[in-house]
Design goal:
homodimer, 281 residues, alpha/beta, Alpha/beta knot, 2 domains, seven-stranded parallel sheet, 7 strands, 44% helix, 10% strand, elongated
Chain lengths: 281, 281
């Protein structure tokens, strides 16, 4: 995914949940998580006691330009302090904690978050240390547990990846799944009259080219050919292109035959292989 | 998300779509993408002309143990060659290409992929170069375009993050959204008789403690208190815990009063603030 999709004239989405990273160890991971936050419209970051201190030049590098998130990030000594002003907390963990809390996937957390924010609450999504995750005491401060469906044989997810997936579900919901672009406006599907005229054209030319060797099989072959083109959902433009292709193939055949005849007269072999089937050959 | 969720006795999921990385530039990104593939049950990797050559030690480091993916990765000179044996291709791109192809999000691609694999087809998910993405000629080899809902003001997604999100949607679907663990089996919600006995207990103790200062407001206050506990969905164990808490508070009050009296007799002030409200104080 290249950077070319970025439109710097567009405004960043406002609001959304707070992301809290508890004692992140490496600036690279903080930066990568921040970049993913920015991609998915999350801009509110709180850091609990980052091991390498703050600010962190490596975090800046890996954030790849999501500076506004870094600049407004707040640092707290512990999770309890970082939860100031928060009404609802989801704690991300890859391990069962044996706690009587609801366990939700990222999609369900996104839905819960959107509903609570719409109701005027503020929500935090809490992620733990790279190696050891959140302490059980920290998880006990959460309303729900957030976890992801992962391969049980290889469950260790990079911190920034976890933030990315949770952010993705958030933005998918917050943007109603709107993709950054769509299939270009299509010309409408062609009138059947145009399609049938194309069938007439191609079937006539195939007849002249002696394509239908067996008269008994001809109706089935024609049905099969028509089905191929029916499946495509051709527009008028598509049909014009196909008419042109058939005409070029027919006329090219004449040209090729004439050239082959000239070559044979000069003692040369005709070209073999893919090249010889190109209509412009 | 810590590594503690990994269970090395579990088998890796088999099958799934092929991931093709076209001319990836950095071993770090290949390795991070491979780790994300492993997390989300994707194990089939094809590389088109990786810039730093192959194998790549940095890719091994960043794959964090997903060696089986690296060991079985295949390298091809171009995308056309890498599509050998593939029936259906989704090309990831962040930019509109003006092509008449369906544009799908990762969830729709996952559904399409699962359906085609179930029908015996093989599917490839193709990701382009870190900076420049896929060339238009490469996108033209795909059946559908895959893109993600992203913040238009900050749309540049890291390659491995894109693989992670697409892999996440794949595994969410392939595993029916099964999370690695669930809320522990709860004791069933308590009989109403047990709940009402608790209400009797707490209301009797509050009466004795002169909590209900205004007889007119007492019925409303009691209703509010009952509503708090009704909302929780208490189990028998929860109710036993609450009975114990009320009893301890009542008995602790006696202890505290006795101690306060002793302190006052010795000329000391009682402890103020949160400490004095702890039942074990």
């Amino acid at each position: 995914m290249s950077g070319a999709g970025t439109d710097s004239t567009k405004a960043w989405p406002e609001g959304g949940p707070v992301v809290i990273l508890v004692e992140p160890q490496l600036g690279e991971n903080i930066g990568s998580a921040v970049r993913a936050m920015g991609n998915f419209g999350l801009s509110r970051l709180r850091l609990v006691n980052p091991r390498e201190g703050w600010p962190n030049p490596k975090a800046v590098t890996f954030a790849s330009g999501a500076d506004r998130i870094l600049e407004t990030a707040e640092v707290f000594p512990d999770l309890r302090a970082a939860l100031a002003g928060i009404n609802f907390v989801a704690a991300a963990t890859a391990r069962e904690r044996g706690m009587q809390k609801s366990v939700l996937g990222a999609d369900a957390v996104a839905a819960e978050t959107a509903g609570r924010i719409a109701g005027g609450e503020d929500v935090a999504l809490v992620f733990g240390r790279e190696r050891t995750g959140l302490y059980t005491e920290e998880v006990s401060l959460a309303d729900v547990i957030l976890t992801l469906p992962v391969n049980p044989a290889f469950a260790s997810l990079n911190l920034a990846m976890a933030v990315a997936v949770v952010g993705y579900e958030w933005f998918k919901l917050a943007s109603n799944g709107a993709l950054p672009f769509q299939q270009p406006d299509r010309y409408p599907i062609a009138d059947k009259a145009d399609l049938l005229a194309f069938f007439d054209h191609v079937e006539r030319e195939l007849d002249e080219a002696l394509f239908f060797r067996s008269p008994e099989k001809k109706p089935v072959t024609i049905r099969n050919i028509r089905n191929i083109f029916h499946r495509v959902g051709l527009t008028r433009q598509d049909i014009a292109t196909l008419h042109g292709m058939v005409t070029a193939l027919v006329e090219g055949r004449g040209t090729r035959e004439a050239r082959t005849a000239a070559r044979l007269a000069g003692g040369k072999k005709p070209l073999a292989g893919p090249e010889s089937s190109e209509p412009t050959d």
